[in-house]
Predict the structure.
Amino acid sequence: MSFYRPPRIAASEITPEHCFFNRRSFLAAAAGGALAAAGTPALAEALKASKSQYTVDEALTPEKDVTSYNNFYEFGMGKGDPLANSEKFKPTPWTVKVDGLVGKPKEFGLEELLAMPLEERTYRMRCVEAWSMVIPWSGFPLAALLDKVEPLGDAKYVAFETVVRPEEMPGQSGYFQPLPWPYVEGLRLDEARHPLAILAVGVYGKTLPNQNGAPLRLVVPWKYGFKGIKSIVRITLTDKQPPATWNLSAPSEYGFYANVNPEVDHPRWSQASENRIGEGGFFGANRRPTLPFNGYGEEVAGLYAGMDLRANY
Ligand SMILES: Nc1nc2c(c(=O)[nH]1)N[C@H]1C(S)=C(S)[C@@H](COP(=O)(O)O)O[C@H]1N2
Ligand SMILES: [Mo]
């Protein structure tokens, strides 16, 4: 995150310059078969029943890029490290503890999470490093999980925590530790309850690969990618703004809110435009304009009414 790394990905897709968000229905028809083949019948079954959908009128980023150009510092700092170094990581069995200011704290097994009402959602993802992708996730609204534990009236924030497993995560055991562990993140409760915020368990109709945050990761498409915490083991409702890893590491560079905002530059680079992975031209003419709230302003701007968005980096 501290520096640019030009992607090694060749230009392969040209997508229209215009970008707008719309909603329409579509069926994740092919997804079921692919998942069954991948040996995950629970997810396959769930996706067959996939309901109303969110999508984007832009070409999908090729699956190969989505699953090989990653940020997941627990496996190393290079974009290829998460794929190369996550072979030993075991995403099953898995549990997620949901606790704090809730009426019914509970430890959820992965099977139970896969039995949530799964949907396929195609979202833009904008990394704070100024590259972006269009990714078809499979997951369920975070609000659906929160409902199950019945947040109390004084709960104002949701805190998230990634697993710590130095024996399976080389970035947590090497001589140089790029970040303090566990990786933690947080949302305001109303952000967490927004229908666009999901917990993803799959991508491209398949179980989430280790490098993308298996078995369960957060996706909040109007915020910079670092808010999308991976391999979550704990979700805690609190009355205080929770710590967030990048915000703690460099508060002048990474905010708590981290809403995508082309008008607020990173102290070391412009956020006005971005490189869509797969379109080529990291520094060149193919850069796309970055959209306020990553194109989701119509849906989420109301969450920030009265806040100074220029200070809300
Ligand atoms: N636990 C953890 N979660 C993480 C990260 C990380 O290093 N560790 N990187 C973040 C960043 S900076 C981005 S851009 C996205 C990348 O998600 P992707 O690799 O699936 O595209 O994951 C986010 N979640
Ligand atoms: Mo990122």
Remarks:
- The chain has one domain: 11-253.
- The CA atoms of residues 213 and 231 lie 5 Å apart.
- The pocket of MTE (ligand 1) is lined by residues 1, 70-74, 127, 162, 183, 212-213, 225-226, 228-231 (CB under 6 Å).
- The domain at 11-253 is CATH 3.90.420.10 (Sulfite Oxidase; Chain A, domain 2).
